[in-house]
Amino acid sequence: MTFMRDIESNAALESQPPVRELKIATYNVHGAVGIDGKFAPERIGGVLAEIDADIFALQEVPLGGSSAPNVLDILQRMTSLNAVEGPTLDTPARRYGNAVLTRFPVRGVRTLDLSFRSREPRGALDADIDCGGEVWRVVATHLGLASSERRAQVDQVLRSFDTPGMPVILLGDLNEWFVHGRTLRRLVTHFYRVPAPRTFPTRYPLFALDRIWVHPGERLMRVEVHRTPLSRIASDHYPLIAHFTSTA
C-alpha cells in the first residue's frame, strides 16, 4: 500500500539559493541505543551535528507512542532541520521506522509498505526535496533480513519509480551481506552503484550493510564513512555519507 501527501508551507514556497554540492547521509541509529547499551538520543544528535549533512536518511528511529519516546522530535529540536517520518510499526503504544531530516523544503512525501508475509514490518520513505531549486527524490529504506524478502522489497521499490528526469537517490540499511547478492544486482539495472565501505558493526566493521544508490551516476563526487569516537559508540552502525553535484 502506498500513501502520498503534498507538503506546502510558507517556508517551502520561499525561493532557495542555488546549491552546488549536496551532502547526503544514511544512518541506522539503532533506536538511539549505543553499543554500551545506553539509550542516548543526544549522542545521535551529536553525530548528526558532526556530519552537518543537507539530508539525513535515518533507520530504526523511535517515533513515539504511549510507552515509547519520540527520538525524531529530539533530533529535530537538536538540529533545527525539517523532519519527515515514515513509520513501519504504528500502534498506540509504539511507533517506529524510517525518517528523513533535511535543511531544505520537502515538497511531497510517499510511504511504501514493504512488509513481507509475517516477517518484521518494513517500509520506504519517499520524499521530494527541493535542493535550492532542483527537486531530488530521496528514498530512505530498511530492508529485511532474508534474501527472498529483500528481493521482493527491491522489486516493489523499483516499480514505484515514475519520475523520469528527476535525480533519484535510494539509501538506507539494505541488510545485504553479500557483495554479489541478487538484491544488489537487481538495483544495478536502475541505479549507479556508489562505493560501499564497511559500516557494521562499529566495534570492528566487517559488512557494508548501509548503501547509497543514485541516478544519474555522474552526480556522485565521493563517498565516505563517518568514523569518530562519538559515532563509534552512539549506534552499532557508522553513518555513510555521499557528496553529489547539483545543477541548480
From TrEMBL:
Keyword presence, Hydrolase: yes
Domain of life: Bacteria
Keywords linked to the UniProt accession: Endonuclease, Hydrolase, Nuclease
Signal peptide: none
InterPro entries associated with the record: Endo/exonu/phosph_ase_sf, Endo/exonuclease/phosphatase, GPI-anchor_lipid_remodeler
Pfam families associated with the record: Exo_endo_phos
SUPFAM superfamilies: DNase I-like (SSF56219)
GO BP annotations, alphabetical order: GPI anchor biosynthetic process
Assigned GO CC terms: membrane
Domain Endonuclease/exonuclease/phosphatase: 25-237
GO molecular function: endonuclease activity; exonuclease activity
Name of this protein: Endonuclease/exonuclease/phosphatase
Protein's organism: Caballeronia humi
